[in-house]
Every structure is written in C-alpha cells, then in structure tokens.
Amino acid sequence: MIENTESTSNKWFASWFDTPYYHILYKDRDYTEAQHFMDSLTGYLNLPEEARILDLACGKGRHSIYLNSLGYNVTGADLSENSIAEASEFSNETLGFKVHDMREVCENKYDAIFNLFTSFGYFDDDADNLKTLKAIHSSLNETGFACIDFMNVDYVIDNLVPEEIKTVENIDFHIKRYVKENHIYKEIKFNADGEDFHFTEKVQALRLADFEKMMEEAGIYLLDIFGNYKLQKFFKSQSERLIMIFK
What we know:
transferase; Rossmann fold; four-stranded antiparallel sheet; disordered N terminus; methyltransferase activity; 247 residues; 29% helix; alpha/beta; seven-stranded mixed sheet
C-alpha cells in the first residue's frame, strides 16, 4: 500500500524498495553492526563449513556478500528485480541471487535461512505471514535452522519519533510515523529530480505472541529468542529487536 504522485500499488514494498530513493534514504545504516550480528548468529548456530544459506529479502545483497566472505554457500533472494540485478554483479561460484517471493517454497533445501532487519510483516493478508513461515520451514533441510530478525514492536512504539526531516544527498525526506490498526506506518515525502514523491511504509505490529501462534500453526519449533544483535536476552519493554531462532 504505497503511493506516489502518479500511481498507487497494492504491493507497496514491490515499488518503494525498487526505487533508488529507498537506498539513498537508508544508505547510512550501520553495516558494521550488521556484520557483527551475522558473525554472532552463524557462530551461535554452529553452521557446518560451506553451509548453504538463504538470505531471504536480501535487497542489493550486502549481507549475502558478507556471509559468502565467511565461507558459506549463499543464495540471496528478493522480490525486487532491480535489487537482484545489482546484487547479481557480485555473483560467484558460491554466491548467487534470484528474484523470489518469500511466500513460495524454494526448490533447494538450506542449512540456514535468514530473514533479517525487519523484512517480514509487509503483507495485507495475515494468511501470507503464515504462508511465508511455512515456506521457510519447508525450505530447510532436516538439520537446518531459520532466523527471523524483527523489530520489537513495544520498544519501537514507545520510542516512535512522530516527525522528522532527514537530509541525504541533498534530498529532504519529510518523515511521519504513527500507529494505526495494528500497523506501524512511516510516510515519506520528498522532491527529487524535479518531481514530488509520497511513499508509505506499512509493517504489521507483530509481537512475540503473534509469532508464537503462527509458528505453532505452521509446525515450527521455536528454539531461542534474543533481544539485540549481540544475542542477549529478550526483554519485552527494553529490547530493540525480536530475534527468533527456529527449526
């Protein structure tokens, strides 16, 4: 549910994530912290050498590339054709990329599937969340593990910044955040290249209890829960992240 000045798309994530402006706005994300997280995560899971990892919703593949540098056989998958086209420039014998809808079961089986940095909860239909969990579960091999790294909704809502202007590469992004009908919204307005844009990110406010209910229905065994990228204990009101390990 994203709109700009010219068109409206029901699958907002398929259009906003495909624009260059999305990557400009979020260019300053802390990738060092992300790499430390992946170091900790792969160490915790004690993955075998050359393990097959699926980076689900990989974007332009930055994290897939890093995981591959650790010696793993990595596939990056994303719905955005533009992102996959850019990521594919870094392909090698043990690193590949593909356009893939996370609701669909993969052809191959993996030792680990990572869905990182709140890349879940974008669908309008709750059934699609369950379908995604089932697809992840079915795409693991018998000894495989999966990880969903989601925001901690209670922490995010308590610390929500209602409005701000963020200037990146001479573009003033006017950002408005609010909670409505169990979703967290972020409206983003800006002018670039002589044109006005208005995009709306919308993510379901899924809490641990919601995931537990869906996982039980999907036949998934939740192994562990962490509250930050250092894999420390999860606290409902204090933790920044909700990191779930399951099989």
